[in-house]
Structures are given as structure tokens and as C-alpha cells.
Design goal:
It contains 12 helices and no strands. By secondary structure, the protein is mainly alpha-helical.
């Protein structure tokens, strides 16, 4: 069943101003949640270029996730070395794959791990899928949301540092709401079809204008909607 959410006037104005400024991005999911999950783990604390290179090297060295699961940890670490923190990320990836294997075996399933995770997520609502992914040890709220939105095309808002900072300054979330709690707030206030464009454009705005330090309020297209610009939210966060 499609969820109908009527946004506040404040959110609607912000959404339209962001679209006018940065355009309306289109989500093109690949429906490969396990590849996305591994890729998101690899992307932590490194650049997109480095994480992408590490992912390609991993699948070139070990073409299936079952091979990655069963390979020695040092071999996985060597394959992803270019992505940084390889000795931390390799066991995290393997633990994720072992967890999914245990879950599937407990159900008597024999599918590939990729098919298993895809089927598990399609059987759940977006919110249920988010909690399901979070139950995998080491998978946090942002990682789970990224997989659901970017790989499955679902309306679940990932809260990264830019989204969190800009949303606080605009008054979309309370000044004391943390990133984890922000997920629940956006789930209540954002029409599903707005989630992807809003996420991408908040990040663009955070990178281009609403910087953590010395935000460029003088040229901000959202100035009229911003609590921070009016001095309502104290110092930059």
C-alpha cells in the first residue's frame, strides 16, 4: 500500500527551492542490495574513487559473495587494500556474509546470497527492511538506508553529515535530534516520491553552500526558510 504524506508548507518550499537550484535527480537502482551493502561498507572513511576501485578489485579476485565469505580474511583484505582500512573492512564484510548464510540456512534455503537478500527485502516494507538490515552486526542506520534507497529504489532517507547539518539549520528536524532519530522524523514528514531528490539535493547544498564552517548564507537560495540564518539555532553544528 502506498503511503500518502502531506508535507508541511515549510518542507514544500524547501523542496521546491532545492529543485529549482539543483534540479530533480533521478534514482536508478540496480536491485543488487548485497553488492550495495558490501560497497557501502567499502565506502566508509574513504573517497568514492578508492572505494569503487576496491569493489572492482574484490569482485575480480573473488567473483561471488560465497567465495568472498569462504576466502581467508587476509585475501579479502588484500583485494580491498586500495579502499583503506582493509583490515577492518574485510572481517566486517565476511561477518555480514556469514550472518546472511546462517539466516538462510536456518530457513532451509539454498539460493545465492544475493538472491536471498533481495527476496528478504522485497517481502518487507521499507521500514521493516531498514530494521532487518540493521540487525546484521556492524550495519548502521545510514548504511541500511543507503542500500534500500540506492539499490532497491525505496523511500528511506539516509542521514549523512550534510543531510543532518542542513536539516537542523533549516528547522526540518529539532536541534537535539541525532542522525539515527532523524530517520524516523523524515519517514513521518516526507512524501515517498520526494525522498531521493530531497536526500541528494540536501547533500549538494551542504557541499556547495551550507558548509559546516562558514556557511555562505549570503548566496543561499534557502535563506528565507532557514532558522540558522535568522539566528534561531545558535552556532554552526
Amino acid at each position: 500500500m502506498t503511503i500518502s504524506i502531506t508535507p508541511s508548507t515549510h518542507l514544500a518550499r524547501i523542496y521546491e527551492l532545492l529543485i529549482d537550484t539543483y534540479g530533480e535527480p533521478e534514482n536508478k537502482p540496480d536491485y543488487d542490495p548485497l553488492g550495495g551493502l558490501v560497497g557501502t561498507i567499502l565506502s566508509q572513511h574513504t573517497s568514492d574513487i578508492n572505494s569503487g576501485r576496491a569493489y572492482q578489485q574484490l569482485v575480480a579476485t573473488l567473483p561471488t559473495w560465497e567465495e568472498v565469505r569462504d576466502a581467508p580474511t587476509h585475501e579479502v583484505a588484500e583485494a580491498i587494500r586500495s579502499g583503506g582500512l582493509a583490515n577492518i573492512k574485510a572481517p566486517r564484510i565476511k561477518n555480514t556474509l556469514h550472518t546472511l548464510t546462517e539466516w538462510q540456512q536456518s530457513q532451509g534455503g539454498t539460493k545465492s546470497l544475493s538472491d536471498y537478500l533481495y527476496d528478504e527485502l522485497t517481502q518487507r516494507s521499507p521500514e521493516e527492511g531498514w530494521h532487518y538490515l540493521r540487525s546484521i552486526p556492524g550495519v548502521g542506520p545510514k548504511t541500511a538506508a543507503c542500500v534500500l534507497m540506492f539499490n532497491m529504489g525505496l523511500a528511506v532517507m539516509p542521514i549523512d553529515t550534510h543531510v543532518h547539518r542542513v536539516s537542523k539549520r533549516l528547522g526540518l528536524i529539532g536541534s537535539k535530534v541525532n542522525a539515527d532519530q532523524s530517520h524516523d522524523v523524515f519517514a513521518r514528514i516526507t512524501p515517498p516520491e520526494w525522498v531521493y531528490p530531497l536526500h541528494v539535493n540536501l547533500i549538494r547544498h551542504g557541499r556547495k553552500i551550507c558548509h559546516a564552517q562558514r556557511p555562505e548564507c549570503g548566496r543561499c537560495p534557502l535563506y528565507s526558510e532557514c532558522l540558522f540564518a535568522r539566528g534561531d539555532q545558535g552556532q554552526p553544528i
